[in-house]
Amino acid sequence: MTENDFGGLFAAALELNGLSAYASLADEFEKLTEELVKFNAHTNITAVRSTKDIIMKHYVDSLIVAEFVEGGRVIDIGCGGGFPTLPLALARRDVHITALDSTAKKLTFVDQCKNIFDLNIETLCARAEDAGRGKLRQTFTGATARAVAALNILCELALPFVKTGGMFIAMKGPGADEETAAAENAIQILGGKLEGNKIILLKTPGGETLTRSLIFIRKIRPTPDKYPRAYAQILKKPL
Ligand code: SAM
Fold it and tell me: Which domains does the chain have, with CATH numbers?
């Protein structure tokens, strides 16, 4: 299998990680890769460049959350160039995704893909801590975030968007136990309850292993009005 054999690499990566249910989306993911590489050539939205890394670090890593998203309306906080937003939107057309980021140029790519693939997405260029105080507050059945901030900080950005009964899934690398322990107070204050962590060892077709974790936080009561605070405050005095 060569670096350029997208179909072979994609199918192998999915199979190794129990995600073959999405194998029928190979053509869409191949087209997404072409668009990502083309866009990245003039506007830097990702440092991940080789086909095999894009498949593993963007697609497989994003798709592991797809089966756990409960449906309805989900917000992806700090989606950047569209991860997990774009793979999730391709895999779960039943879910409406609000793709939020404070950097407009990254959302241009997400909008472009929304049009190409006719995805159930809307983009929102805003700071999470501002939007979380506005009309979208406590309106989502779910939230996701990958590679945005430490969990105690991330919870203050994400949980205000989720309605009671909904779920925030934080997508993390290794070290979920430590992060979760450090965020216990924040989770509780913001109206959440830790439902559990899932450690996932992703296997690459090249024989490497990448450690990932999903942290599941259920919203069990409304977030108090004073949260989220201004970002400087969140950083200065994390909950
Ligand atoms: N989730 C994407 C991924 O995994 O490829 C992007 C990760 S990137 C390292 C972090 C992103 O979070 C950036 O695009 C940044 O603009 C966004 N971000 C960080 N803090 C934010 C905030 N308070 N509100 C909105 N976006 C934020």
Answer: 57-236 (3.40.50.150)
